[in-house]
């Protein structure tokens, strides 16, 4: 049985997620951004990715080596290939190290 309070929290979380996803582009389309704000918004996805990946990549030597490998090849191959190589490198290096 699903408790009503749990269902309410799930629905509120879904609504908040949807509003964030829809509201951000809606708001940005209606305001004028200066060059600094535009540059900051363009850099945000990369900054978030680094904030999420860096702690995990530096937690083990094997993961740090895999991250370094991905950084070396990411500019030369498609992103899907770089991700696949990174996953494979983590699996192999964790078994070896």
Short description:
The chain is mainly α and 97 residues long. It contains four helices and no strands.
What features would you describe in this structure?
There is one protein chain. By secondary structure, the protein is mostly helical. It has two domains: 1-31; 44-97, no CATH class. It is built from four helices and no strands.
What structural keywords apply?
2 domains; flat; 97 residues; mainly alpha; single chain
For the record, the count of structural domains works out to 2
The number of helical elements comes to 4
% residues in beta strands: under 5%
Order of helices and strands: HHHH
Structural class estimated from helices and strands:
mainly alpha
Biggest beta sheet summary: none
Question: Which helices and strands, and how do they pair?
Answer:
Elements: H1 4-30, H2 35-57, H3 61-73, H4 79-96
Helix pairs in contact: 3-4
């Amino acid at each position: 049985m699903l408790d009503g309070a749990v269902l309410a929290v799930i629905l509120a979380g879904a609504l908040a997620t949807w509003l964030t996803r829809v509201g951000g582009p809606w708001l940005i389309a209606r305001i004028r951004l200066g060059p600094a704000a535009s540059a900051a918004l363009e850099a945000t996805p990369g900054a978030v990715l680094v904030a999420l990946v860096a702690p995990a990549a530096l937690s083990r030597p094997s993961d740090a080596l895999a991250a370094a490998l991905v950084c070396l090849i990411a500019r030369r191959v498609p992103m899907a290939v770089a991700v696949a190589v990174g996953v494979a490198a983590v699996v192999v290096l964790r078994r070896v190290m």
